[in-house]
């Protein structure tokens, strides 16, 4: 049975990948998070046309918002297998007890084998390793690794006839360590744009110094925290182009980042 509700963290409004979305981008992302076709795993069958029909959002507007979400990495979509994955969904909506793992396994088997299902498998697997024996035993019993694996997980010497691997309890307790995420930190007041930023600004005729001042003031005034401020400024510059319709301009171009949720 699918859960009747989902958790949406208040901190979403401090997430750079979210607040750089347009209004329709945010609406589509909220649809993806709360879609009736979703499940507790955050990985489910989702045909593109079916999502448009169910969301009741006009085709072109849905495509614009959906493409923004994909670009920001808020979710991934497999057009061939019609599978959608929200990478951060499971860790924010984890099962309260081993019975939750059992319920999720019933949704898991409905997902066709593909790279996104494999990513989902590893997300759940890493979470389970930090839990008690009941969670681990239930996971090993009910979750089987798909044939398709995410990049970097293939054996250097694959067998001629590959078969799905089955995790043992030892595998769950001693999996390969995931990469550590960078910590979100405030913007250093001495931060300066890189040569790449200058090249991007020169290419599109952006007034770089003006954008740097606006970016710094916005970050410091709102106490923003990011893991990679250089990448954040890249996104800021690209966003400034959207608000000038891609036209070269040397005049100030301030990205109009709004927080209007009236459409949601």
Can you tell me about this structure?
The two termini are 26 Å apart. The chain has 264 residues and is mostly helical. Helix 2 (23-34) crosses helix 4, helix 6 (98-108) packs parallel to helix 8 and helix 10 packs parallel to helix 12 (229-242). It is globular and about 60 Å long. It folds into 2 domains: 1-151 and 163-178, no CATH class; 185-242, no CATH class. It has helices at residues 16-19, 23-34, 48-55, 59-71, 89-92, 98-108, 115-128, 133-142, 169-173, 195-204, 208-221, 229-242, and strands spanning 43-45, 76-78, 83-85, 185-186, 225-226. It has a 3-stranded antiparallel beta sheet with strand order 1-3-2, covered by helices on one side. Strands 4-5 form a two-stranded antiparallel sheet.
The H/E string reads HHEHHEEHHHHHEHHEH
Rg, alpha carbons: 21 Å
What is the oligomer described by this structure?
single chain
**Strand adjacency order, main sheet:** 1-3-2
Q: Which structural class best describes the helix and strand composition?
A: mainly alpha
Low-confidence stretches: 151-166, 246-264
**On the 0-100 scale, what is the average pLDDT?**
81
Helix content: 40-55%
User: How many discrete domains?
Assistant: 2
Biggest pleated-sheet summary: 3 strands, antiparallel
- What is the tally of helical segments? 12
């Amino acid at each position: 049975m699918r859960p009747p509700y989902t958790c949406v963290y208040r901190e979403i409004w401090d997430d750079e990948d979210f607040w750089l979305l347009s209004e329709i981008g945010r609406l589509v992302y909220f649809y993806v998070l709360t879609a009736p076709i979703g499940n507790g795993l955050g990985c489910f069958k989702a045909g593109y046309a079916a999502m448009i029909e169910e969301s009741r959002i006009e085709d072109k507007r849905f495509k614009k918002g959906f493409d923004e979400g994909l670009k920001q990495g808020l979710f991934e979509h497999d057009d061939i297998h019609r599978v959608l994955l929200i990478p951060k969904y499971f860790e924010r909506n984890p099962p309260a007890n081993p019975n939750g793992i059992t319920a999720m396994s019933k949704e898991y088997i409905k997902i066709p084998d593909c790279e996104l299902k494999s990513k989902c498998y590893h997300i759940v697997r890493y979470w389970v390793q930090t839990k008690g024996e009941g969670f681990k035993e239930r996971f090993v019993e009910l979750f089987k690794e798909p044939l398709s694996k995410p990049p970097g997980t293939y054996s250097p010497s694959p067998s001629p006839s590959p078969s799905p691997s089955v995790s043992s309890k030892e595998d769950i307790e001693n999996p390969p360590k995931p990469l550590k995420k960078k910590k979100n930190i405030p913007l250093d007041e001495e931060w300066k744009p890189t040569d790449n930023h200058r090249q991007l600004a020169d290419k599109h005729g952006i007034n770089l110094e003006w954008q740097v001042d606006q970016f710094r003031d916005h970050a410091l005034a709102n106490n923003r925290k990011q893991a990679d401020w250089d990448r954040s400024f890249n996104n800021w510059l690209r966003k400034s182009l959207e608000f000038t319709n891609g036209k070269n301009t040397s005049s100030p171009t301030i990205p109009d980042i709004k927080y209007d949720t009236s459409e949601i």
